[in-house]
Amino acid sequence: MSRRTRDAIVVGGGVVGAACALALADAGLEVTLVEGREPAGWQPQQPDLRVYAFAPDNAQLLRTLGVWPSVLAARACAYRRMRVWDAAGGDELQFDADRLGREQLGWIVENDLLVDRLWAALPAAGVQLCCPARVEALEQDADGVRLRLDDGRRLEATLAVAADGADSTLRRLAGLEVSRQDYGQRGVVAYIDTEQDNQATAWQRFLVSGPLAVLPAGTHRSSIVWTLPDAEAERVLALDEPAFNASLTRAFAGRLGAMTLASRRAAFPLRRQLAQAYVAGRVLTLGDAAHVVHPLAGQGVNLGLRDVAALHAQVLRAQQRRQDWSSPERLQRWARERRSDNTVSAYGLDAINTIFSNDEMHLTLARGRALGCAGKLPPLVSALWKRAAGL
């Protein structure tokens, strides 16, 4: 039995939850992290299929938390260019680090590596771990929250943070409802080798069936996220390797020459899911527990870490002003800011997916031309990239 009151309890130890625990500890709070199972650990010889296009603002957040150097030292593939085009025709939309005055546009990083390095930093930050443990019950009042865990422990805190994923238990216990839209699509993921150098470029080709992203993981090694309708994803996963390689190479129009599988394949269902509110009393929700978006622009984990960065900044501002960091007014201010940004991003990605995953004639004629026109306007290119990069 543990009844000592903490400042914050973070439920969920994935990338966003672990980063939130570290960020609140960095602000001087006493933090407990609750996670159902201990991470397996990063295996350098077995790259994680789940990768992120990590944005510069979130790299800075992890640098502030003392984690980013160890991620870079392990394995993070910088990309310097992005090229986006429509299979139906038209010019490309291109982003180039040199033209934007950057050393790189971002990094491709494995989920397991990020979790491994974040967890390694928890003890030194003073974060108390309850693992393995899951939340079973929640009570709260104006002064704080009380959680009962499945191992019998009871925790008390000023604030509880739901960072336990799209099917969040804590969010449900707090009564925070969500709206869902199933896309009827799956993201097929794998590592591949390409005949030609991928040029440190993140590539995306829009097909009627959905976007195909090819992300650099080495000179000739790439990670793919191939969005397909459910039935087509099942068919592609069932193909033998030569047939899969041929189908993938064809879908990418042979842009990097022949493509060959370099790992197992997997697929995950795609949906949009948005919490209707981010705060219920002394419980707030962030990351996938608050918002799930289409992966076509790689914004999922980036949006979640921006939730964390905004919360971190708000706590620090309150402390500098000798004000209550957990006041309902401050929590609601954070919620309004992040819900607005995340909702705009979610519906924007939804619109892009709808427009480009479509064989309607007028859209087909217009969209490639629109990409090309956007690419010819440097201020627009810069604004689009800054939005994606969180700058």
From TrEMBL:
Domain of life: Bacteria
A Pfam entry, by short name: FAD_binding_3
Presence of keyword Flavoprotein: yes
Tagged with keyword Flavoprotein: yes
SUPFAM superfamilies: FAD/NAD(P)-binding domain
Keyword annotations: FAD, Flavoprotein, Monooxygenase, Oxidoreductase
Annotated FAD-binding domain residues: 7-337
Family: Belongs to the UbiH/COQ6 family.
Protein name per its UniProtKB record: UbiH/UbiF family hydroxylase
Organism: Stenotrophomonas aracearum
